[in-house]
Design a protein that fits this description.
Bound molecules: flavin-adenine dinucleotide
Structural class: alpha+beta
Strand content: 15-25%
Helix content: 25-40%
Shape: globular
Distance between the termini: 7 Å
């Protein structure tokens, strides 16, 4: 099979003509190409090569269709983003040169059903907006939230197959009924939505006939302008649990102990286990003075830092959801499963957290802990487990920035934070978790970075290891070193059978192959987008076989 999508060459005259069309359609407020804004939009948290040629801000699906038609007419590619905060994977920067199609103005919640538990939203709807909407409506439904900022979009995250913390944490798994502007400008409804007036458009994913939802995440085959998201009824009872284990070797037995609980349904949510580097980076700043400016932090220094913080080599957290009886039984089973494998396990609910907040001094004296510090670590995780987004984790992107994060208006792209995620997927086994984390630790330290890692028990059968390459982009040579580290990591992990679940824009080629899979994707791309107008290179850099 030999099918190739035509490679676009953006001639300045074509860009001028296309921009003229967009300007007539959207007006100067929403179609612009001020050099400073273009530079800012092309900047991510690592080195990228795609440039933003113009910024377009449509406010309706019809305007999106209009932008696409103009793009096709003049052969100028578009790179759609929802809120464009894809930090650590490319932010707003396109894979290859393109006009940025920013969908943040399309931010209406257009459908809501309390009984059936869903909302239908546009791409600009943020985590904060959905939370406030549910609160304003006195809803008994919970959303899921990621650890990225409350200002991140729900559709954008789903288009990257992101995940959160609650039982609804698999975002593609809890979304359906996509409305998509195709590269031709036509409008497609997936699932049952293609039947005019179908009552189940927001309720079932498969529809009748081929299921097309999967084509539009991690791809460049269309622009999603609406999507339905399922929500969970607030459980009658909820408790969070937190545990630590002292040694790096303690991870594998913990994973083995947790898997049966996940398989049988005692644990229903995405559970996260972070290593000492990750926890220390989340709760503070790089100890520049103590280590006299040296990087990376070695094992000995980390052991000292983590003891001062009172955490182990690994710290885990998760939620228990259900009736009071369910939660009580789940606690018993969890305690029993982890006995002897963790040093400490603590359960926290609204009541205990309230007491901690009301009587910090007395509790601090009694338990010999710094309650303010404990709450600073506990609060954001506890919120996320209840589907409440939090701004706190974003500060960790400033780990290696000597000045630390600004007091407000954090913007890792603008501030030169270096952040690159490598996220391999692995079987839900202790052996795989140990192999991947040992390998990643070695590669990162060899390249001069702290091996910050978390293991997420993403599903019953699969773990995701999120490995953070964190640095300061303003230090000469660091971008190159981070990129070399990433490539080496992916190569070594692929060699052992651990592919990434998601890719940074600079590395779409790291998993390219000459397989029938790649040929089929290229054939679909050529059929739907012969002009290669939508996000060229995004998850489709494979060269078709001759
Ligand atoms: C501290 C920190 C914590 C984080 N925690 C998490 C986490 O818990 N889980 C997680 O998944 N991520 C996490 N991230 C990564 C990232 O910031 C989030 O995934 C974020 O939601 C992505 O940005 P966005 O929502 O603005 O999506 P966007 O940047 O708008 O979209 C992402 C990509 O999807 C495509 N896309 C977007 N919208 C559309 C559309 N309408 N049609 C077609 N294609 C589209 C584009 O190619 C775009 O580049 C974290 C980042 C940081 C810095």
């Amino acid at each position: 099979m030999t099918v190739t999508a035509r490679a676009p060459a953006v001639a300045p005259s074509a860009l001028d003509s296309a921009f003229g069309g967009w300007l007539r359609l959207l007006g100067p407020e929403r179609a612009h190409r001020d050099a400073r804004a273009l530079r800012a939009a092309s900047r991510a948290t690592f080195a990228t090569s795609g440039t933003v040629l113009a910024i377009l801000e449509p406010a309706s699906r019809e305007e999106v269709q209009g932008c696409v038609k103009i793009a096709n007419q003049y052969g100028v590619p578009l790179y759609p983003v929802s809120t464009g905060k894809n930090w650590g994977y490319g932010s707003r920067a396109p894979v290859r040169d393109a006009a940025l199609l920013y969908l943040g103005r399309m931010n209406r919640i257009v459908g809501f059903d309390e009984d059936l538990g869903y909302v239908t939203i546009e791409p600009g709807v943020t985590q904060r907006q959905l939370l406030e909407f549910l609160r304003e409506h006195g809803s008994r439904l919970w959303m899921d939230a990621t650890g990225a900022s409350p200002e991140c979009s729900i559709i954008g995250n789903t288009m990257e197959r992101g995940f959160g913390h609650t039982p609804m944490g698999d975002h593609c798994g809890t979304a359906c009924g996509l409305e998509v502007v195709l590269p031709t400008g036509e409008l497609l409804q997936t699932g049952f939505g293609r039947f005019e007036g179908a009552h189940t458009a927001a309720l079932g994913r498969w529809g009748v006939g081929p299921s097309l939802d999967g084509l539009f995440s991690q791809s460049n085959l269309g622009i999603v302008t609406r999507m339905s998201v399922w929500l969970m009824p607030a459980p009658e009872a909820f408790e969070a649990f937190f545990f630590t284990c002292a040694t790096a070797e303690g991870l594998a037995p913990v994973i083995e102990a947790i898997r049966p609980l996940r398989m049988e349904g005692t644990l229903r949510s995405v559970m996260h286990i972070g290593n000492d580097y990750k926890v220390v980076a989340a709760s503070g700043r790089y100890p520049w003075e103590e280590v006299e400016g040296r990087t990376p932090l070695g094992r000995e220094e980390m052991t000292r830092l983590r003891s001062a913080l009172g955490v182990g080599a690994w710290s885990g957290s998760g939620g228990l959801y259900g009736t009071p009886a369910h939660v009580k039984e789940a606690k018993r089973r969890l305690r029993h499963a982890l006995a002897g494998k963790v040093d400490r396990i603590q359960f926290v609910n609204d009541r205990t957290l309230g007491i901690l907040r009301r009587f910090p001094k007395a509790i601090g004296r009694l338990m010999r802990i710094d309650v303010a510090k404990t709450l600073a670590v506990l609060d954001p995780v506890y919120s996320l487990l209840k589907g409440v987004p939090t701004a706190s984790p974003l500060a960790s992107a400033y780990w290696r920035k000597k000045g630390g994060p600004p007091a407000m208006d954090l913007d890792p792209d603008r501030d030169g934070c270096g952040l690159l995620w490598c996220s391999p997927v692995l079987p839900n086994t202790g052996a795989a978790a140990a192999e991947v984390t040992t390998l990643a630790s070695r590669v990162l330290l060899e390249h001069g970075f702290e091996p910050q890692m978390s293991i997420s028990v993403a599903t019953e059968r699969m773990l995701v290891c999120v490995i953070t390459i964190s640095y300061d982009r303003d230090v000469a040579g660091e971008d190159e070193r981070a990129s070399a580290c990433y490539r080496r990591l992916v190569q070594d992990l692929l060699g052992r059978g651990y592919p990434p679940y998601r890719l940074p824009v600079s590395s779409m080629d790291t998993v390219s192959d000459r397989s029938t899979f790649a040929d089929t994707v290229a054939a679909i791309k050529a059929a739907l987008d012969p002009g290669n107008i939508i996000a060229p290179g995004r998850y489709s850099s494979a060269t078709p076989r001759d």
